[in-house]
Design a protein that fits this description.
single chain, 86 residues, mainly alpha, two-stranded antiparallel sheet, 36% helix, globular
Length: 86
C-alpha cells in the first residue's frame, strides 16, 4: 500500500524506500504540498494529504520519513532524534 506523499512510483527504477527524494514519505514536504494545494483551491486534496500524513504519524510515531510502500519507519542507524550522522 502506498502511503501519502511518496516522491517516486514504486516501480520506478530509481525508487528506493530509504534514499532521500527517491521514494520516502516526508512529513514536512507533505505539509508544503498541502499548502500549495490549498492555494490552488484544491482543498479536498490538501485535506486528504494532511489526514493521511497525520494517520501515518499517529500509527508509527514521529520520524523524519517513512517507507511509502508500507508506511513504517525505515530501519537504520539514524532516526530524527539521533542528531547528525556519525
Amino acid at each position: 500500500m502506498v502511503r501519502a506523499g511518496g516522491r517516486l512510483r514504486l516501480r520506478d527504477p530509481d525508487f528506493s524506500e530509504t534514499r532521500m527524494w527517491r521514494g520516502p514519505v516526508w512529513v514536512n514536504t507533505n505539509w508544503l504540498v498541502a499548502q500549495g494545494l490549498r492555494r490552488q483551491g484544491l482543498i479536498d486534496k490538501a485535506e486528504r494529504l494532511e489526514r493521511a500524513t497525520l494517520e501515518l504519524v499517529a500509527a508509527q510515531g514521529p520520524n523524519e520519513y517513512f517507507r511509502p510502500d508500507t508506511g513504517v519507519k525505515p530501519r537504520g542507524p539514524r532516526r530524527c532524534s539521533d542528531g547528525p550522522p556519525r
